[in-house]
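Reopening closed ticket. The problem is back. First fold of the pair:
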Amino acid sequence: MRIIKKIGFFRAKKILKRKIKILINYYFYKYFYKWNFFGSKIEIGKNIRFDNWNTYIEDNVKIEDNVILGGKGEIFLGENTSLNPNCFIVSQKKVKIGKNCMIAPNVYITDEIHNHDRIDIPIKFQGYKYKEVIIEDNVWVGRGTTILAGIKIGRDSIVGAGAVVTRNIEPFSIVGGVPAKLISKRKEGN
């Protein structure tokens, strides 16, 4: 009590919060490295939410501020991949992001979709379908893109900003729009 009186209640509260945060981070990293969920040289920003304990991160991955990795399924982040601020990845089955991928800010990736087949039951009560999402190596996903359940994005593709990906994308494609459509193909030397 003497310490609190001496430095003030709010300052003591701030110091206590900081020490608790340091302890949480220490144990978080200690156990993740012990279980080999994380690779080496990983950069993690502020305010990251790991609501998903089935997350596997390879070497040299960069996760920026305010990223949320949620759900109960598996999330795989390949080598040299970067998740920029405010990305939200929800996995109830499996979301796999390959090597050397760039995921721009505000991207939403999910492997779940509401069932909506029956008209006699409200959509809210029909449950979900889960279909895995695969983003292959060297893919650039533009700012504000939404990638829906069951999508496979082929290697070396580019998804334009603000696109809503509702169909599979072939390798070496450039797509954009709502819904995402083929704009052109990438060629060697371009």
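Second fold of the pair, where the issue appears:
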Amino acid sequence: MANTQPPPAKDKLQEEEERLQDAFDHINELHLQLRQLRTALPRIVAPLSAKSAKNASPQAVHAAVMKAAQDTSNQITDLRNAFTSDKTVAIFREAAESRKKEPKGIRPWLACEDPNWAQVKKGRQPADPATESTRAAAAVSSTTGNNS
């Protein structure tokens, strides 16, 4: 006979941590989309470069520029939709409320604290508490100047 009992309920702290991690992953994805737009103009004008345009017909160059412009426009639309989604608005609202409650309690995040910050994480690995606390302590001491 199979065990039909529901799995044990997670404690509130673990649920909160998972919810915050999901929010962080969503904001990180938005940030990566925004960073990809940094190359928008170079991609649009790349077909006009001397090497590309030298052997191509004007129609082919025009078509390549228009395709690059359309692709960039689609990226901007996707980013705008993601930034104005209900999930993003709720995350930013929660962050604003948290800053009102504890304006000095939020330590700024530094990219050097997580060398893999630009990689999209599809599946989460459970964090090792010992590693996390050691890394957090090192980050705090590096930002405060304490090297103990």
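Update: turned out to be a display glitch only; the data is intact. The radius of gyration is 23 Å. The chain has a mean pLDDT of 78. Please close again.
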